[in-house]
Design goal:
691 residues, mainly alpha, 3-stranded antiparallel beta sheet
């Protein structure tokens, strides 16, 4: 239970925490210099009331709100509880002060005010503030939370207002690109870019995880190189060999191996709380602190270091002894969320591996070869379940193996945190809350900075928060399938929640902005056509792009409205326009036959050699473009070649939705089609265009 001790200058909040060394966590907040003791007690009571409804992981957000109120409400002359106008003026003044702070970004100020708003509402409930007072609300879908989260590579960047000609950015920074592309082609390329960004992040995380595993293997091989009997004897003699010399002395060629074995034993036996020079010295390791520093540096020198480049050598030694670090856990949660987006960031980071009775939440189906894992969903009084692919199984297996010693230590101490999935070493003690430190932390040892060597391939700002990774998977699924039902199944939410909160919110805004930009550019291009400044006034850097946009305008100007008439009159003379027809919606059925698939694959190769305009042209007889037919070929090939073990859950679901019960039949037809492709290649290679 949260308690508060009030001194002359501070408010000290304290609550139980089994993970803490002393068994409790504290938070200290400065008192308002002008507030009376009674007013300070009101603040404390409101914080306690709010936190009683929350998990301890959410307390910090409430404390931030308290800081905002104390810094903006600087008077002790409070109006009467029923003085609506008096309180309204004070609340507006506080809101203004909070937004005018120069040391915080707008997003941070909005988030902190949202936390302060909860405390103000609680003050209203207990009778301090008039209940009819309007408290400014910043928690809207368009500006806060996961509901407006842009996907990978689309993080917005605010640009300062230009105050001189030198501040004006080049045209390429201020235009919308690819307005000449049809909507379906634009969305296809947009999806491909998202998939590419997600693949870059996923591969970087895999590389980081493999480097960590390699370091664990190096440490294990060094320890295992020591004979078991001799190892047990030396450990029982506190590191002293038969010759009477310490096994970590500089003269011993195996000093590093012995150092790792002794350090690991002392940690697992509970003699030290962390693997550091200070802890080993405190426990009388048997050599000087100078020698320990030398051993730590030697351990650091043998570790792979593409992703980890810390000056402190403690994390290297922890890795060599088989333990996880905070960043290791952050990398694991990111990998698991990408491959299992049904899990939210908070639910996975705080997930339990074991039940109170010792049963495990990991379930293995030996007949189907599947591994299931579930996390708690408290508000729904249920659990979210995911079937792990090969990569997720490997990560989960590594986590269980690397946390076994920490888990045993905590269980012996009867600390309930032994049940947690993620257990790692911090600088002083075992911990279990990897989500408390952001993946985007500016610290050089944060996950985003360690992966920077690989993430440079993404040429736009990258956000590695778990909510962004999950939203990206959701948007990709939506763009692949066009189905909210499939997307909601992948994200583990209802269709209503998916539609209102997750996928379409950012996507609709992004596509809406593009639609408005197209409308504006149509007006600009028609109005300036024939003038020397026509291209400079448009969103097009090259004349070819402008020409394709003119073709698009004429293709869509088919009515008799005034704009269509003017557009055809001004642009129709020299556009080189050819007739296009809008696609007609319908269903397409084809038999899963090797010859049909072979023809489709050859057809796809031929289409790739055609100009873009020709690829997207709608055929008058079929109502399909060449690219639409190629999409069928690509989807057939991807479904047939899908590796169930390596595929993510959404890829498996999409393949099953496409092929249904005929997936095995499709795979067999695909394998036979690959042998017949050369025959159809010879037919298409000499054709002017595929038919």
């Amino acid at each position: 239970m949260l308690t508060c001790k009030i001194t002359d200058t501070e408010m000290i909040f304290e609550w139980p925490d089994e993970a803490a060394v002393k068994g409790t966590q504290t938070y200290t907040c400065s008192r308002g210099s002008d507030h009376t003791l009674a007013q300070t007690r009101k603040f404390a009571q409101c914080v306690i009331n709010i936190c009683a409804r929350l998990s301890p992981n959410s307390y910090n957000n409430v404390f931030r709100g308290l800081q905002v109120i104390i810094s903006t409400l600087t008077t002790n002359l409070w109006p009467a509880h029923n003085d609506k106008n008096g309180w309204q003026n004070i609340i507006i003044m506080m809101y203004e002060k909070a937004l005018q702070r120069q040391d915080q970004s707008l997003g941070t100020k909005i988030t902190y005010w949202s936390a302060a708003e909860r405390i103000l509402k609680e003050l209203s409930r207990i009778g301090v503030i008039a209940p009819s007072v309007v408290i400014p609300n910043t928690k809207q879908n368009t500006i806060s939370g996961e509901q407006a989260t842009p996907p990978l590579g689309y993080k917005t960047k605010k640009i300062k207002t230009a105050k001189s000609t030198e501040d004006i950015l080049p045209k390429k920074f201020m235009i919308e690109r690819d307005l000449d592309e049809p909507d379906d082609l634009y969305l296809s390329r947009f999806r491909s870019e998202l998939e590419s960004n997600l693949a870059i992040v996923s591969n970087a995380l895999k590389g980081y995880w493999e480097e960590m595993r390699a370091t664990h293997a190096i440490g294990n091989s060094l320890i295992e190189s020591l004979p078991i009997e001799e190892r047990e004897k030396v450990i029982s003699n506190n590191g002293i060999s038969d010759s009477g010399e310490h096994v970590c002395a500089p003269s011993n060629p195996n000093a590093l191996s012995w150092f790792l074995a002794l350090a690991k034993h002392q940690f697992e036996s509970g003699k030290i709380n962390a693997i550091s020079v200070q802890e080993l010295t405190r426990n009388s390791f048997g050599v000087s602190s100078g020698r320990l520093y030398d051993l730590f540096r030697e351990a650091k020198s043998i570790c792979p270091n593409k992703y980890i480049n810390s000056k402190m050598s403690g994390e290297y030694v922890s890795r060599l002894t088989g333990l996880l670090s905070l960043v290791d856990c952050n990398a694991a949660t990111a990998l698991l969320v990408i491959n299992n987006p049904v899990f939210t960031a908070d639910s996975l980071a705080s997930a339990d591996l074991y039940m109170e009775n010792g049963d495990c939440y990991v379930q293995v189906d030996m007949e189907q070869g599947q591994v299931r894992f579930s996390v708690s969903k408290p508000r729904a009084r249920a659990r979210k379940v995911a079937h792990f692919n090969k990569l997720s199984r490997e990560v989960l297996s590594d986590i269980i193996e690397c946390t076994s010693s920490l888990r045993l230590i905590l269980r012996k101490k009867k600390n309930r945190n032994w049940r947690r999935l993620f257990l790692y070493m911090n600088s002083r003690t075992p911990a279990n809350r990897p989500n408390k430190v952001s993946n985007n932390n500016k610290d050089k040892n944060s996950l985003i900075n360690r992966l920077a060597v690989d993430l440079n391939a993404i040429h736009t700002p990258v956000d590695l928060s778990l909510s962004v990774l999950r939203a990206t998977v959701g948007i990709i699924t939506f763009l692949r399938t066009g189905s909210l039902a499939v997307t909601s199944m992948i994200l583990g939410n209802s269709i209503e929640v998916t539609e209102s909160n997750y996928v379409p919110r950012w996507l609709v805004r992004r596509f809406g902005n593009r639609t408005l930009r197209i409308l504006a550019q149509k007006l600009i291009v028609v109005a300036t056509h024939g003038h020397p400044w026509a291209q400079a006034a448009s969103d097009f850097l090259h004349s070819d792009d402008l020409h394709r946009f003119i073709v698009r305008i004429l293709n869509e100007a088919t009515g008799n409205d005034p704009f269509a008439v003017v557009a055809r009159k001004k642009l129709g003379g020299n556009s080189g326009k050819t007739d296009f027809k809008k696609p007609v919606k319908g269903e397409l059925h084809f038999h899963t036959h090797p010859e049909i698939l072979a023809a489709l694959y050859s057809y796809e190769k031929k289409v790739a050699t055609l100009p873009v305009d020709e690829q997207i042209r709608i055929d008058a007889d079929t109502g399909l473009s060449h690219q639409a037919v190629c999409s069928i070929a690509r989807l057939s090939r991807l479904a047939a070649e899908l590796d169930i073990d390596a595929a993510s859950e959404d890829e498996v679901q999409i393949a099953l939705n496409f092929a249904g019960d005929s997936l095995d039949e499709l795979k067999a037809a695909h394998n036979q089609a690959l042998k017949e492709v050369s025959y159809y290649d010879a037919i298409f290679i000499n054709a002017d265009s595929p038919r």
